[in-house]
TrEMBL record:
Coiled coil: none annotated. It comes from Fontibacter flavus. Keywords: DNA-binding, Repressor, Transcription, Transcription regulation. Pfam families: LacI (PF00356), Peripla_BP_3 (PF13377). This is LacI family DNA-binding transcriptional regulator.
């Protein structure tokens, strides 16, 4: 026969105190309810001795808090998102929170369904890389006073906290670098997207090539997972049809992976035949031969700011929940692929 699970009632009976006293101590309200330190220690020592684990669901119902934050991104297997996730998990744990991870695959219907599911489980907040058209759902979360922070991209029409990076200025800097090392026919390979981060990266590139009056070609591919091969084939076709390109700027690191494969198939010598820069640095880029120039996003700082922002929204002592709009600086690492 299975051993009966210890309840708060059992603890109260064993110690000769009220159930309410035990409940207050378990929920961290001993000082607030003026329970003595001696009594608090007595209860804490006993539950430690018997190995009591409070019901997470029961606690969340009593407190109105689950101590769970959802981390919802485009693709959790992507190195950028995975790195942020790992850093956030550590910071959340230190503050008494757990993280649930999920991927939207940039699919709005899937994102809405996931948010609905997690709301029913009474999570405390959401850190989201929003999909196209998710504005009404995010506004609904905010109206319900849930903690929400966007990252990697933001929503111009929604008054919501976000943490993003300097996409436009970094893209401009990288393109200027290609121009300064002699490139006069520059290609920009990006995604078909109306999301803020991709628009800003395109605008930074376009401003730099127009200011310098150099020839340029833009190629946009549909959003895809790394496992899909169609985009890789399309990039190869684009490069084959534009043999005059002497510089190429990839808007994401996974586009760069596909592009480098295509350049290898075309027997293009980097940097002699064509110089290469990518947005979003990756450890692979420093191992590749030649090493690839790339824009590094400040992962640690992004994670810090995301947690700071959502914890402020979850702070019960703050009557006004602050809306924080943070834009962080990146760093361009110039490596062998784009040296003059």
């Amino acid at each position: 026969m299975a051993k009966k699970k210890t309840s708060i009632k059992d603890i109260a009976k064993a110690l000769g105190v009220s159930i309410t006293t035990v409940s207050f101590i378990l929920n961290g309200k001993a000082k607030e309810k003026r329970i003595s330190e001696e009594m608090t220690k007595k209860v804490q020592d006993y539950i430690k001795e018997i190995g009591y684990k409070p019901s997470h669901l029961a606690q969340s119902l009593r407190l109105g808090k689950s101590k769970v934050i959802v981390f919802m991104v485009e693709d959790i297997s992507n190195q950028f998102f995975a790195s942020i996730a790992r850093l956030i998990e550590e910071k959340a744990y230190k503050n008494g929170y757990k993280i649930i991870y999920c991927s939207t695959d940039n699919d709005t219907s899937k994102a809405i369904e996931l948010i609905s599911t997690f709301k029913m489980r009474s999570v405390d907040g959401f850190i989201i890389t929003p999909t196209p058209g998710l504005e009404p759902t995010v506004e609904e979360l905010l109206d319900e006073n849930l903690a929400v922070v966007l990252f990697d991209r933001w929503m111009p029409d929604v008054e919501c906290s976000y943490v993003v990076v300097e996409n436009k200025s970094s893209s401009f800097e990288a393109t200027r670098h290609l121009i300064e090392v002699g490139c006069r026919n520059i290609g920009f390979i990006t995604l078909e997207s109306n999301q803020t981060q991709m628009i800003d990266r395109f605008n930074g590139f376009e401003q730099a090539v127009r200011d310098a009056e150099v020839n340029h070609e833009v190629f946009k591919v549909k959003f895809h997972t790394i496992a899909e091969q169609e985009a890789s084939t399309k990039i190869l076709e684009f490069l084959e049809s534009n043999p005059e390109l002497d510089g190429i700027f990839f808007a994401t690191n996974y586009l760069a992976f596909e592009g480098l494969q295509a350049l290898s198939k075309l027997h293009k010598n980097i940097p002699h035949d064509i110089k290469v820069v990518s947005f979003d640095d990756h450890y692979f880029f420093s191992l590749y031969n030649p090493s690839i120039s790339a824009i590094e996003q400040p992962l640690e700082e992004i994670a810090d700011r995301l947690m700071e922002s959502i914890l402020k929204q979850l702070d019960e002592n703050l009557v006004e929940k602050p809306v924080q709009k943070l834009v962080l600086n990146n760093k361009l690492h110039i490596r062998e692929s784009s040296r003059g």
